[in-house]
Amino acid sequence: MTGIEPLAVAAAGLMGIGLYGFCLCRHAVRRLLSINLFGNGVFLALILIARRLPDGPDPVPHAMVLTGIVIAVSATAFGLALVRRQARTRGDDET
Amino acid sequence: MTALDSLLALLLLLLAARCVSARSLLQAIVAFIVLGLLLALSWVRLEAPDLALAEAAIGAGLLGVLLLGTWRSLPLGHGNERIPLPWQGLRPALITTGCTVLAVLLTVALHQHPEQAAMSGLAALDQLDAAGVDQPVTAVLLNFRAYDTLLEMGVLLMALIGTLMLDSPLPRDTELPARTMLPATLAQLFLPLILLIGLYLVWAGAYSPGGAFQGGAVLAGAGVLLILTGFGEGDGRDGWVLRALLAGGALVFTLAGLLLIPVTGAFMAYPQGLVTPIMVLIEFSLALSIALSLLLLYTGTPGLRRRGER
Amino acid sequence: MRPDVLPVMLVFLPFLAGLLQFIAGRPAPRLGNVLVGVNLLLVLALIPGVADEGAIVANLGGWSEPLAIHLLADGLALLMLLLTALLAVAVSLYAMAAWRDQHHDALRFWTLWPLLLGSLNALFLSRDLFNIYVTLELVTLAAIPLVLLAGPGKTVDAALRYLLFALLGSLIYLAGVALLYAQAGTLDLALLADALPDSTLAGSLGASLIIVGILIKAAILPFHVWLPAAHGGAPAAVSAILSALVVKAAAYLLLRLWSGPLDPLVTPAAGQLLGALGALAILFGSWQAFRQERLKLVVAYSTVAQLGYMLLFFPMAVTAAWQGAVYHGLAHGLAKGALFLAAGNILLYLGHDRLREMRGIDRPLAVSLLAFGLAGVSIMGLPPSGGFTAKWLLLTASVETGQWWWTITLLLGGLLAAAYVFRVLRLAFLQPPENVPDRPGMVPPPLMAWSATVLAVLAIVLGVVSAPLLELLGSPVGGSE
To answer: Are residues B167 and B293 both part of a single domain?
Structure first.
């Protein structure tokens, strides 16, 4: 081992903070943000893992990150549409 | 160089903490967007410029616009909350302990290196010559593990179908400063450039960092710009051409895979000599599907039209 | 025809149908029904090959071993595919009648349902850790819009909660995949067990994250909170798919991964812990099911309970427990499909599903109640049903391993299941009060009533045909026997 890698700490920290936010936040947008924080931590970890190959970064984790980003964003976009719809339904109920 | 890494890591953690703990939802969103950009910066340093591009364009850019748009559509003050601090009660204390333990364990685990280098990665670099493209990540996405990418297009399409079912487009407040911030001339000036960059990125994916995802995201960004500057807007109707383009990325993959079985004898294998043209075809249809899907996820409508058209 | 074309077709034909339906923009229920028929034939065609050779493997792309993605159809996958195919036929017939006059909803259903079917097939066939992540997301993102078909206004809360938990679960799973890839350098399930170094922290942590991620997706106690509202609120056909297949798919992954690639990493203590979670789920879910006031929530909480039985494999880990857990998955799938379809018919007739106002529906809804009763027999685990066979196998395992506490759990779970099933039936068969309330709903068409009944009959028949199916399943790959 060659000392501590600061970005590995950041990756682990992002996952920890994301999970913390998911458990404690109540509003759905905040929970979505927390989930994405966790996801960003996972992606950062994968990119760190990709650097372990002797010649050039490992393309397999890189491909996993690209796929993961697109999936996370599309699911989050769907989640945000659900939030907007929820707010509208509540607004209709109140008036 | 470690000093810069340390600084980046520290900033990332501070922003994440800010994102979770900010009382105002808007501040949390802004912290999240800045974090995404910093993350992209750190990925450039980690020899992943193409991923940095994707994160900046999709993870921070497009998602950021969507988050801000959703925030605007919520009633004022909605989503502002103060989460309890770790020492304010048993539950927060337990959760804090758990998450800290998890983070420490993860840190240790991420520092454990196995003796052998990853064999999948080695195999991918080894067989790059047969893949039809020079860029290893593109080769993995479109050839070695094309099946994953096909399924991912399915995810994107279904997220879009789900969003459209909700019928809750982003609010288009007609007299908002959003448009004055981006004067039409500015858009006219930059649009051709952005379109060019998007197309170039798709094309370049075969040889250098870039690819269908980044290119698609940039093209979607051009579309968002068009809408923000008042040239286009979401439409409640769609046509089969648009739907075909949306499904096209997944469809081309499926058909290329199915129809070539008799030729190559294997599924999702491309015949020698035709690899490169097939890859280019797939790449462009993917980019187009991605761009349109992301744009419609942004507007939340099934179709698009020019402003003022009926 | 080469046998390895079959698994590929099982994924791609449904996708093709879904995409074409999306482009066409006009509902084509006939296409959907042809598709599920073809899907069933393809699964049946797989049986001889798997029975002869043990497994059929398809290589996607023709690349070499550590790099390519493979599809694997072995006994376990085949049984799940068979369950999916049978349910698909019944649900499609039901849906054809249910959405006959609703153009918009029908279009959405017939677009999403083939895509979900293809995703489920893809998940059951996958032999690759990361590919499983993508299929999990596919299944989730096909399932949640289907929940919204019941009317976005009513179900948006449930859908949002479902999405949040599902997203978190799959990202936790992905974190585990990252750690395992870092250690093993491959994502192929067949290579992982050998490639993983012994007892590193990264390996154990990765395995734990994968398991926790799947537990969230499978709605195992204490992660069940999203399930009842989503499954109870969805339209009947969708509830049947979600309860019988979608959560089951996550439980299936647990069995698949535990007995294969994670085998070197798991410990007996972890097995006992999962078993305890399963037992808690059985008792808590059944008790909640007994206390509900609405029929669909009774059935939904019953799913929380029934999923617990599949976890009883992990502490015992012998062949009988393996067979029992898988068989329970099959029996519960068929029975739960029947229960939800029957509940949908009752809801259609009454206009609501409040238990207290259900009196006197036995005559107009005789066929649906027959389905409910027969499926209830299997849920309670009475002979000769599939549920009985499954519980019998689990009991045998608990005697074999000397872990008597699971015997008690099984017996208590059966009693509680009997309590909530009979509570519903008693209310349904009670004579109506003097002033019969006005019932605006229509008597469900025969297709809707009989598709539920066929599923229920299959759940009973499952108890009689267990020998060939169990032979097909075989024993766990890394199990102790």
So the answer is: yes
Model pLDDT for residues C6-46, shown as the tens digit of each residue: 999 999 999 999 999 999 988 999 999 999 999 999 999 99
**CATH code: domain of residue B8:** 1.20.120.1200
Same domain, yes or no: B2 and B53: yes
8 A C-beta contact, residue A39 and residue A79:
no
- Asked which of B87, B105, B123 is the last residue of a domain, the reply is B105
Residues B18 and B166 reside in one and the same domain: no
Domain around B80: 1-105
Domains within chain A, CATH numbers bracketed: 6-94 (1.10.287.3510)
Q: Is residue C369 within 8 Å of C379, Cβ to Cβ?
A: no
Q: Does B52 reside within a domain?
A: yes
Q: How far is CA C56 from CA C42, C128, C129, C282, in A?
A: 13, 15, 18, 35
Q: For position B176, what pLDDT does the model report? A: 44
Q: In terms of domains, do B161 and B74 share one?
A: no
Do B77 and B197 reside in the same domain of the chain? no
* Cα–Cα dist B160/B164, whole Å: 6
- Please give the tally of structural domains in chain B: 2
Residues B185 and B222 in one domain: yes
Residues B89, B140: one domain?
no
Per CB-CB distance under 8 Å, the chain B contacts of A91 are 75
- C418-446 pLDDT, tens digit per residue, is 999 999 999 888 877 666 666 667 788 99
Note the pLDDT of residue C178.
97
Q: Mark which of B86, B105, B124 sits at the end of a domain.
A: B105
State the smallest CA–CA distance between residue A46 and chain C in angstroms: 6
How close B12 comes to chain C (CA, Å)? 18
Residues B79 and B156 placed together within one structural domain of the fold: no
> Which residues 6+ apart lie within 8 Å of C87 measured at CB?
C240, C241, C244, C245, C333, C334, C337, C455
pLDDT digits (tens, 9 = 90+) for C198-251: 778 999 999 999 999 999 999 998 899 999 999 999 999 999 999 999 999 999
Which chain C residue shows the shortest CA-CA distance from B250?
C19
CA angle B51, B298, A39 (to 5 degrees): 40
Which is more confident, C265 or C145? C145
Q: What's the mean pLDDT when you consider all of chain C?
A: 92
Question: C79-128, pLDDT tens digit by residue?
Answer: 999 999 999 999 999 999 998 888 888 999 999 999 999 999 999 999 99
Residue B89: left (phi > 0), alpha (psi -120 to 50), or beta? left
Asked if residue B197 belongs to a domain, the reply is yes
Domain assignment present for residue B291? The answer is yes
- Nearest-by-Cβ selection for A86 from C133, C156, C172: C156
Q: What percent of chain C has pLDDT over 90?
A: 77
Chain C environment of A71 (Cβ under 8 Å): 134, 137
Q: Is residue B141 part of a domain?
A: yes
B213 vs A contacts (CB less than 8 Å): 66, 69-70
Is pLDDT of C183 > 90? yes
Whole-number pLDDT of residue C464: 92
Q: What length does chain C have?
A: 481
Q: Does residue C414 register a pLDDT over 70?
A: yes
CB burial readout C350-367, b (16+ within 10 A) else e: beebebebbbbbbebbeb
Give B-chain residues touching C202 at CB under 8 angstroms.
Answer: 108-110, 112
Spans of chain B below 70 pLDDT: 1, 171-184, 208-210, 308-310
- Catalogue the long-range contacts made by B242-246 (C-beta closer than 8 Å, 24 or more residues apart): B242/B292, B242/B303, B242/B304, B243/C22, B243/C23, B243/C25, B244/C23, B245/B288, B245/B289, B245/B292, B246/B157, B246/B160, B246/B289, B246/B292, B246/B293, B246/B296, B246/C22
Q: Which of A31, A67, A86 sits opposite C164 (nearest CB)?
A: A31
Identify the pLDDT of residue A94: 56
